[in-house]
Amino acid sequence: MVKFILLMYLCSAVANECRLVPTPFSAFESYRDCGIYGYQHTIDLLKGMPAEHINKWKIYTRFVCKEESSV
What we know:
Elements: E1 2-12, E2 17-21, E3 27-28, H1 31-47, H2 51-57, E4 59-69
Antiparallel strand pairs: 1-2, 1-3, 1-4
């Protein structure tokens, strides 16, 4: 069975770097579910940060849903 793993990064355009961030859920049954969760988690993450911090550091996220096969 194929599962999809979410890898999410919090990035700063000012510092020109990204760091892997933990997510509450990381394994999904479909690519679609992984993608929808990645976008929703981005919204929640950014809404939870102070606007001044986001604006100063130009914070954004990147994420990828990577296929992982289990035997």
